[in-house]
Amino acid sequence: MKLSKKIFTPLLVSTFSLVSTTVLVCSCSSNSNTYTFVLSTPSNEGDYNVFANNVAKKFNELKAKDETTSSLADITINVKNIDDKQTKLNSVLNGSADFTFVTARYLYNNDVYLQVKPLIQTLTTPFTFDTDISQVYKDGSETDPLRVIANNMQKASFGSDFVQTTSDTSTSSSNSGSSSSTSASKWSWDSNSYHYFSQWKDAKGAAPNYDWNGVRYNAFYDTSAPLVAGYRGMIVLSGSDDKIQSAIEAWDKRDWNSFRNLGIVLGENGSTGNYLLEQSLIKQHFTSLGQDFTLANDRSQNPGKYDTDSSGTYKIGKDSNFVITFSDEGSFSWTHNDNSNQDFSPINNNKIKILTVTNPANYDIGIFSKSVDTKIADLLTQAIVALAQDDPEGVGVNSYGAGMGYNGFSKISDFKKEVYDPMQLALG
Q1: How far apart are CA 276 and CA 295, in angstroms?
Q2: pLDDT(20) > 70
Q3: Count H helices, E strands: the chain?
Q4: Residue 367 to residue 208: CA distance in whole angstroms
Q5: Of 48, 234, 295, 312, which alpha carbon lies 20 to 30 A from 271's?
Q6: pLDDT value, residue 1
Q7: What's the rounded Cα separation, in Å, for the pair 281 and 262?
Q8: What would the pLDDT profile of 351-397 be if each residue is shown by its tens digit?
Q9: What per-residue confidence (pLDDT) applies to 182?
Q10: pLDDT at residue 12 above 70?
């Protein structure tokens, strides 16, 4: 689940929790037993100071149980509350902090991961409609795994899907007495049970009762499935039925000009979930564009066909000149219908059609400063992993992590295989 500060006070987003370090190494603090974590503000009531104290406590417990580390002094953790992603990374790079969580893309870009110790992969509860994060782009057709996920998401959230049906029409010739049949295609919503976002309820039960828990709609999450290490973007359509149909047909025909000319609302050009993932998918699907294609260059040549919405939720369907929106996958799941916001609320009572999701990117990565001893960093990693295992519901020692969308953590054993290669596939 990609939570965002904008929604709860987006990420989507962005995404995961913390770590600390101890004695044998040089800490950025003047006290070698005190370490500095840089942590963001969670969307719930989870307290990053309490979380840091829990990490230190668990670390001290773990090292005491191992005779090879039991002689180490106990540690404490100080917290700097910083939300800006680049500033968090810089804090570890310049030595003013010992640990933070950063966007995986920042480590992938320019091989920054080589300058830190990336040891923790944050995990999150999967969506009911997307439990297999390994699914990737095949051919972009209706049977493509990414389109199938989108269709399942459509059913789970908005109820009714916009589909194409084919009917046979018969014609006869009065002269010859013969008859022939032709196929006619028609696009329509497949049921009358479309659930407008404004109709969504907090209660638990049949749709559109989606069980809001103060952070997310529980109905969209599969708590029985294994946690996942990635998230996706999605391409959403909204407008008149004719315009939605035109967008789908342009996609199926790989006609980029017709697709783009329907108008695209995208996120900031540094955003992973509602800009870069979609850009990569577009280059894969509209192959005639070439690998040097960028949305920024296309926007400079067609400025009237683009608009920006950093949330990826507010401007969906708000302007009839912009049919296409980029957003984080399932961003509605952590956007509360409190009868006051205007997210997912198109004009003219128009509906929303989720066209496709993107290839997955890794969730946030927990990184240590290079100055932190490897053995200490490993122990801290064990401590953070253990906190989530001790509190799978995210209501106790990992309540902070849950408020960041970090429902679990795992140790990274092979960064290239587990993070770098998937990011390369996602971003190109």
Answers
A1: 9
A2: no
A3: 13, 15
A4: 40
A5: 48
A6: 60
A7: 18
A8: 999 999 999 999 999 999 999 999 999 999 999 999 999 999 888 99
A9: 57
A10: no
